[in-house]
UniProtKB/TrEMBL annotation:
<dbReference type="Pfam" id="PF01948">
    <property type="entry name" value="PyrI"/>
</dbReference>
<dbReference type="InterPro" id="IPR002801">
    <property type="entry name" value="Asp_carbamoylTrfase_reg"/>
</dbReference>
<dbReference type="InterPro" id="IPR036793">
    <property type="entry name" value="Asp_carbatrfase_reg_N_sf"/>
</dbReference>
<dbReference type="InterPro" id="IPR020542">
    <property type="entry name" value="Asp_carbamoyltrfase_reg_C"/>
</dbReference>
<feature type="domain" description="Aspartate carbamoyltransferase regulatory subunit C-terminal">
    <location>
        <begin position="95"/>
        <end position="139"/>
    </location>
</feature>
<keyword id="KW-0665">Pyrimidine biosynthesis</keyword>
<feature type="domain" description="Aspartate carbamoyltransferase regulatory subunit N-terminal">
    <location>
        <begin position="2"/>
        <end position="91"/>
    </location>
</feature>
<dbReference type="InterPro" id="IPR020545">
    <property type="entry name" value="Asp_carbamoyltransf_reg_N"/>
</dbReference>
<keyword id="KW-0862">Zinc</keyword>
<dbReference type="InterPro" id="IPR036792">
    <property type="entry name" value="Asp_carbatrfase_reg_C_sf"/>
</dbReference>
<dbReference type="Pfam" id="PF02748">
    <property type="entry name" value="PyrI_C"/>
</dbReference>
<keyword id="KW-0479">Metal-binding</keyword>
<protein>
    <submittedName>
        <fullName>Aspartate carbamoyltransferase regulatory subunit</fullName>
    </submittedName>
</protein>
Length: 143
């Protein structure tokens, strides 16, 4: 079994659905940082079978709504002095802005510039969102 040492201070993004770790890694632009980052893919998990984990040896600001949208089962562990200081359980955000784009060619967001793409959660079980302007449905495929 692979062993990754603990981090002194930073963030552990855990319980990522297998295969979605790289998506989060790219979204957070972790390939451009100069501090230690570990991306563990397809790690064994009793709860999920397989999971991805990202360990970041640095404290950084991140949008938890985006991470919750990508995978609502993620947990965030804030690490201080090699111990879990705070644990955050994510969920699907009620509203997302400029995370996804409306695909309706007649939507005002497709015609006008500088209008934010706003979607509201309609069904938490299916991850269905609707465009605030035209009611176009977006189904979250990560669920």
């Amino acid at each position: 079994m692979l062993t990754i040492n603990s981090i002194k201070n930073g963030i552990v993004i855990d319980h990522i659905k297998a295969g979605f770790g790289m998506k989060i890694y790219k979204y957070l632009e972790l390939d451009k940082v100069d501090y230690s980052v570990a991306l563990i893919m397809n790690a064994e998990s009793r709860k999920l079978g397989k999971k991805d984990i990202i360990k970041i040896e640095n404290n950084l600001e991140m949008d938890f709504d985006v991470l919750g949208f990508i995978d609502p089962n993620i947990t965030i562990d804030i690490i201080k002095d090699e111990s879990i200081y705070k644990k955050i359980k994510l969920k699907l955000p009620r509203r997302v802005e400029n995370i996804i784009e409306c695909k309706n060619p007649r939507c005002v967001t497709s015609v006008e510039k500088n209008i934010p793409h706003i979607f509201n959660l309609v069904d938490e079980k299916t991850g269905e969102y609707r465009c605030e302007y035209c009611d176009q449905i977006y189904e979250n495929i990560s669920l």
